[in-house]
Write a structure and sequence with these properties.
It holds the Pfam family LGT. By secondary structure, the chain is mainly α. Helices cover 61% and strands 3% of the residues. Helix 1 runs antiparallel to helix 4. The C terminus is likely disordered.
């Protein structure tokens, strides 16, 4: 756990914010590298990224604050301290998706191709964000006896939740998964039919997130006192992703050689 990356007097750079910024920069670069597969101009790619970023941060923060509202009852301004962690991916994904759909409709872009292009960018950005979570000490795991279990310092939220126990570094599990999936999506967006990359992203993220939640020690259970909010959403997007995969595989012709 290393929440403060650098300090200069009273000014400090938090690890979570730095990793989130790195993820955004890498994601922007990847969208621009692959933008031709969505027939996006450089300006359209930049504008779509700005729209997705703003909507994603707002949506992710809203979901987190609603889920952990008790933390902010007496700390209203803390709601806006996103640099300290506290973002729920699904919230950001859903609002960013809605914002991108509106932007693509206005700009006459193919939302399916745009989401294909965004898949590897989201994977790499998410991986960086999870490393930030690990350094920040949020999104911690359940107790484990495995030798790679992580012990958090006294007074930290994970240590208060599980005093004296080693926990699964579930943040790093998810970061590793997303790094590996990034290479898959990067290949798919260039070599498969329209929609396949997007559908693969939905399916695989839903599956891995559902499994990761089994090792999470910080999330409340909301359905039958067993499933977490992320697992409930995963149960919805996994079949949706599979259905889209089958649809695009059957109905789309391979057309990846697109001009700038």
């Amino acid at each position: 756990m290393h929440p403060i990356l650098l300090s200069f007097g009273s000014f400090s750079i938090r690890s979570y914010g730095a990793m989130a910024a790195l993820g955004f920069v890498l994601g922007c670069w990847l969208v621009n590298v692959n933008r031709k597969y969505a027939r996006m101009s450089s300006d359209q790619a930049s504008t779509s990224l700005f729209v997705a970023m703003i909507a994603g941060i707002i949506g992710a923060r809203i979901f987190y604050v609603v889920q952990y509202f008790k933390q902010y009852r007496d700390n209203f301004w803390g709601i806006f301290r996103v640099d300290q962690g506290g973002l729920v991916f699904y919230g950001g994904f859903l609002l960013a998706l809605a914002a991108l759909w509106l932007y693509c409709r206005r700009s006459k872009l193919d939302i399916v191709r745009v989401l294909d292009v965004y898949a590897p960018a989201m994977a790499i950005a998410h991986a960086c964000g999870r490393i930030g979570c690990f350094l920040n000490g949020c999104c911690w795991g359940k107790p484990t006896d495995l030798f790679w279990g992580v012990s958090y310092p006294e007074g930290s939220n994970p240590a208060l939740c599980y005093p004296g126990e080693s926990l699964h570094p579930v943040q790093l599990y998810e970061a590793g998964e997303q790094f590996l999936l990034f290479f898959l999506y990067f290949y798919l967006v260039r070599h498969t039919k329209r929609g396949i990359t997007m559908a693969s992203y939905l399916t695989l993220y839903g599956i891995f997130r559902f499994l990761n939640e089994l090792l999470r020690g910080d999330n409340p259970k909301v359905l039958a006192d067993f499933f977490t909010p992320a697992q409930v959403i995963g149960l919805l997007i996994i079949p949706a992703g599979l259905g889209l995969f089958i649809y695009f595989q059957r109905h789309e012709s391979k057309d990846t050689e697109l001009s700038h």
